[in-house]
Design goal:
By secondary structure, this protein is of the alpha/beta class. The chain is built from 20 helices and 20 strands. The strands form four sheets. It has a six-stranded parallel sheet with strand order 3-2-4-5-7-6, with helices on both faces. A six-stranded parallel sheet has the order 11-10-9-12-13-14, with helices on both faces. Strands 16-15-17-18-20-19 form a six-stranded parallel sheet, with helices on both faces.
């Protein structure tokens, strides 16, 4: 006989879970006690949002659900930030939430929440385990659901009395995500579309990708000389140094790439949904009738035709679809010149960063990083204008080297970096964070120190919520309200936790400071102070204000 808490841990072990991310709570003490005797590593976080983001990053990196454990009420509320990211980014995530005893339901007991109501519109499945003997069933279903079709978050509530109840049941075997594949008729239709297109474009995004699928995309592009763009914060799906790469379709898009999307007569949307950000506020394609012939490949059938009516809808995972493309007949690529032109446009947009105001110029920082870091370095970020430098001027070369929120969630970079470093301790893991973004989850630097996760955090400090200030100056020029920040000494913050701290106030000092941080072997913060005028790569704060709407 095992307690419900022991059965939970046994079920997680059977699913191959290596670590769980948590903030402890008395509502699930029995699970914490069972973890004491388990090989699963318990990563103790500082805030439930950080724990949920770390677990969500596991889903991005591995394709299998990360596991987050939080206590009832406030703990679950705090974790909702990570649950929302998993939903928007189509990442598999399992969140285990402590719950009141079964006999107290409906009395507004201490920290009582109806999780089905709370997360019902955000998670793929929300349920409560109502008896210890059902633990294996419910954990198995949670993992299957989180991974299947369009992946996403699952929330399971754990009543406190169920966790001490006993039962004699065995855990289920590890869940395996089911692949869906195209039919021969669909591939024949794709061949016919390729045979008559003049201006094709492949747009890769979404989830359910593997290193093998990314490699198959490269082979597909090479065989047919297809231009390949990637969706917002899915840049690691295609090698940026490849001759077929056309750039990323996201915030701050290259105008020439946006024009190519509009001009395409065949758009192959592979794995993604072409939602608000990549579609430039749903402006690049007609709705519901796209202007181009649209081939939409997605692992969830309910996403096909949801917004755009496809010419050819293919319910398939990216890997299964790309494997099927190997049987396509050879076609002379009449568009090869356009592919070369798209790549030239990308290089012209991203090779040489513009010079910006101030003693620290982010373009020089990016060139130094591009020349120094290995191709397998993992780059993470949250949300903010600072991320434009990474997205536009870094060269993503390999699958699994980018962990970033398509949801646009601030505070994501540091938790994601910790998760990536724990998974790949041998690799460089660099977190980009704005001063506002970092302070959303900055206390997780303590988690990095406690776990020995030697991430390097670049805090790009301009003393403001820069993205909001940019919009503010455009809409209400000169009327600054609610966007200024008075910041701490971030390098001293790192040292206070037992990490390494550096401050950079000139471009030429960045390289030596970074190398000292790297050599320290400790979690490190490099505090990069930039001029507030350097608000974007293309326009200064003053220029944005001058062009703002008159009031």
């Amino acid at each position: 006989m095992k307690t419900g808490g022991q059965l939970i841990v046994a079920a997680l072990e059977a699913q191959g879970v290596e670590r769980v991310f948590c903030v402890p709570g008395e509502s699930y003490l029995a699970v914490l006690d069972a973890l004491h005797d388990s090989a699963i590593r318990t990563v103790v976080c500082r805030h439930e949002s950080g724990a949920a983001m770390m677990a969500e990053a596991v889903g991005k990196l591995t394709g299998r659900p990360g596991v987050c454990m939080v206590t009832r009420g406030p703990g679950a509320t705090n974790a909702s930030a990570g649950i929302h990211i998993a939903q928007q980014d189509s990442s598999p995530l399992v969140v285990l939430v402590g719950q009141i005893e079964r006999g107290m339901r409906g009395r507004d007991a201490f920290q009582e929440v109806d999780y089905r109501q709370m997360f019902g519109g955000m998670a793929k499945w929300v349920a409560e385990i109502d008896s210890a003997e059902r633990v294996p069933e419910m954990i198995s279903r949670a993992f299957h659901t989180a991974m299947s079709g369009r992946p996403g978050p699952v929330v399971l509530a754990l009543p406190e009395d169920v966790l001490v109840e006993t039962a004699d049941v065995a855990p289920a075997a590890a869940a395996v995500a089911v692949d869906s594949a195209p039919t021969p008729a669909q591939m024949a239709e794709l061949a016919a579309l390729l045979g008559k297109t003049e201006r094709p474009l492949v747009l890769a995004g979404g989830s359910r990708w593997t290193a093998g699928a990314a490699d198959a995309l490269r082979r597909f592009a090479e065989r047919f000389e297809l231009p390949v763009a990637v969706s917002f914060r899915r840049q690691m799906l295609f090698d940026h140094a490849h001759r077929c790469y056309a750039g990323d379709v996201g915030l701050g898009i290259n105008p020439k790439l946006a024009a190519r999307v509009r001009e395409a007569d065949l758009l192959l949307l592979l794995g993604g949904r072409f939602s608000e950000v990549p579609s430039q506020s749903y402006d690049l394609l007609g709705i519901p009738e796209p202007t181009a012939a649209l081939v939409h490949v997605h692992p969830a059938s309910e996403e096909l035709g949801r917004v755009y009516r496809p010419t050819l809808a293919v319910n398939a995972t990216p890997g299964a679809f790309l494997e099927a493309t190997e049987s396509l007949p050879d076609i002379a690529p009449r568009w090869a010149g356009r592919t070369a032109g798209a790549n030239a446009d990308y290089r012209a947009w991203s090779d040489v960063p513009p010079v910006t105001p101030g003693a620290v110029r982010m373009g020089e920082v990016m060139l130094w990083l591009r020349d120094t870091l290995p191709a397998d370095a993992v780059m993470t970020n949250g949300a903010g204008n600072y991320a434009t430098w990474l997205h536009r001027f870094w060269r993503f070369r390999r699958f699994g080297t980018q962990v970033a929120p398509a949801s646009g969630s601030m505070g994501y970079g540091l938790p994601a970096a910790i998760s990536a470093k724990l998974a790949h301790p041998e690799r460089d893991v660099i977190c980009f964070a704005g001063d506002g973004c970092f302070q959303m989850t900055g206390l997780e630097f303590g988690t990095a120190v406690q776990e020995g996760a030697a991430v390097i955090v670049l805090v790009i400090d301009n003393g403001m919520y820069g993205t909001i200030r940019m919009h503010q100056e455009r809409e209400y020029p000169g009327r600054v309200s609610g966007t200024a920040l008075r910041n701490p000494d971030f390098a001293a913050f790192a040292r206070a936790y037992g990490g390494h701290g550096e401050t950079v106030e000139r471009s030429e000092d960045f390289g030596p400071a970074f190398q000292r941080a790297r050599a320290s072997g400790l979690p490190a913060i490099v505090h990069v102070k930039i001029d507030p005028e350097a608000l974007t790569p293309n326009r200064t704060l003053s220029e944005i204000r001058a062009a703002g709407k008159p009031r």
